[in-house]
Amino acid sequence: MGTGWRVRLARPPHLDPAALRRDILARLAGLVAEMSQWEPDSHLSRFNRAPAGSWADLPPDFATVIACALAIAEQSDGAFDPTLGRAAALLGFGASVPAGDDLAAAQAESGWRRLTFDPAARRLRQPGGLWLDLSGIAKGYAVDAVAALLAERGIRHFLVEIGGELVGRGVRPDGEPWWVALESPPGMRLAPLHIALHELAVATSGDYRRGAHTIDPATGRPLAAGVISVSVIHESAMLADGWATALTTLGPARGIALATEKRIAARIVIRAGPRPIEHLSPAFAAMLED
């Protein structure tokens, strides 16, 4: 995933930390083997190379993520689109592409509506020339997956972080919740926000770390400057991750409107001249009041 991970926990007496670390690494390696666009033998990469009209059998994790990605795509009217892998690769954010490929062709052959997904059979149809890119949602799913693994091991109190996406369960050993500072872009003078992640997750999308890498589904090119970052708080890190990407694409006005309609707790930060402007959805503002 091109990032690191951390787990903090209240250690039960029976816990073997070395064994737990091995289990976490194995779980993450399995997800990379399914959904990495950089691993040529991953399930995702094989789907991207599959001939037009062929069906791919998906492992359970992959099927869960693509189902969620398509649901967010539909609810956001395509602001989140998991089919921009070729455009991302051509722009330098993914795997290598064949010589002679171009953005016009990639744009013409992308589009989440071209996908046919059979959730009962866990099968996905390749319409031809379409490349998946799940980087806007799979990291959040990985956070949820590690959290589920810890719960299965009988661990009730923990904080999981992968590349800035976090989920908290239970409380710290001192009885306090897992407080995290909401990520803000460097140099932005914003009031500090601390979130108590008690049975909650938070994900932040923004172009201030790796440059303009969020692709506009309407153009196949990086988004124009405007939105600096979007943070979403949700029970699911996967949903927080996906919605943060969708709201980034929509921008402040449409993003807050959709977050209000869907009751999503979101903070959108934009640059207006030398100063940042912060937009909060009603659900996010209500959490601050609590």
From TrEMBL:
Q: What is this protein called?
A: FAD:protein FMN transferase
Identify the EC number(s).
2.7.1.180
Q: Which cofactor does it need?
A: Mg(2+)
Q: In terms of domain of life, where is this protein from?
A: Bacteria
Q: Which InterPro entries does the entry mention?
A: ApbE, ApbE-like_sf
User: Does the record bear Ligase in its keywords?
Assistant: no
Name the top EC class: transferase
Molecular function (GO) terms for this protein are: transferase activity
Task: Name the protein family.
Answer: Belongs to the ApbE family.
Q: Which UniProt keywords apply?
A: FAD, Flavoprotein, Magnesium, Metal-binding, Transferase
One Pfam family from the record: ApbE
Reaction(s) the record says it catalyses: L-threonyl-[protein] + FAD = FMN-L-threonyl-[protein] + AMP + H(+)
Q: Does the keyword Amino-acid biosynthesis apply?
A: no
